[in-house]
């Protein structure tokens, strides 16, 4: 140990630097460089022409979202009709699950909510895909009503699933998903 300390003492004192002193020196020397980097204004990452195109695209997308929101706000009655359909379907599904075909028949046989749902479908559906899902819902609902009337639990469950899936897809396609609860 003594020979090790003796060799340290023979070194040039100016060359012996502690780690702390080395890091402090490096930090002090790098501060002006860091300040220069941070104070410099950021250069544009995209060309001005690309920036204009991007800005126009963003404006167009925003306009479409605003138009869609305004359209959905104007469909309060239709949204309420579809929300009621979800509620009625849920009640019917619970009755079918319990094999309570009388209750399911009472729910599914109520013409008022069915006709208002069809009215909402015809007013809101703007393209063939939306109309197709509305038609699937309507036809599978008729199949569901028949299966419940015949007390055919298996067919009723299949028709219920088909109806519910079509209703869920339709709300997604029309943009009503956020307004409709319970899907």
Automatic annotation (TrEMBL):
GO BP annotation list: photosystem II repair
Pfam families cross-referenced by the UniProt entry: MPH2
Ranges for domain Maintenance of Photosystem II under High light 2 C-terminal: 80-183
Protein name: Maintenance of Photosystem II under High light 2 C-terminal domain-containing protein
Annotated organism of origin: Selaginella moellendorffii (Spikemoss)
């Amino acid at each position: 140990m003594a020979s090790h300390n003796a060799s340290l003492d023979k070194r040039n004192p100016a060359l012996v630097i502690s780690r702390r002193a080395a890091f402090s020196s490096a930090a002090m020397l790098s501060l002006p460089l860091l300040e220069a980097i941070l104070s410099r204004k950021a250069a544009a990452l995209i060309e001005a022409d690309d920036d204009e195109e991007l800005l126009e695209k963003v404006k167009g997308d925003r306009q479409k979202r605003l138009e869609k929101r305004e359209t959905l706000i104007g469909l309060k009655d239709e949204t309420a009709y579809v929300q009621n359909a979800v509620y009625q379907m849920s009640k019917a599904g619970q009755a079918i699950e319990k094999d309570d075909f009388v209750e399911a028949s009472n729910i599914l046989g109520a013409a008022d909510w069915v006709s208002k749902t069809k009215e909402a479908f015809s007013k809101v559906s703007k393209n063939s895909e939306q109309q197709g899902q509305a038609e699937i819902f309507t036809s599978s609902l008729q199949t569901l009503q028949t299966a419940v009337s015949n007390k055919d639990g298996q067919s009723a469950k299949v028709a219920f699933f088909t109806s519910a899936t079509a209703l869920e897809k339709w709300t997604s396609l029309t943009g009503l998903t956020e307004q409709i609860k319970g899907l």
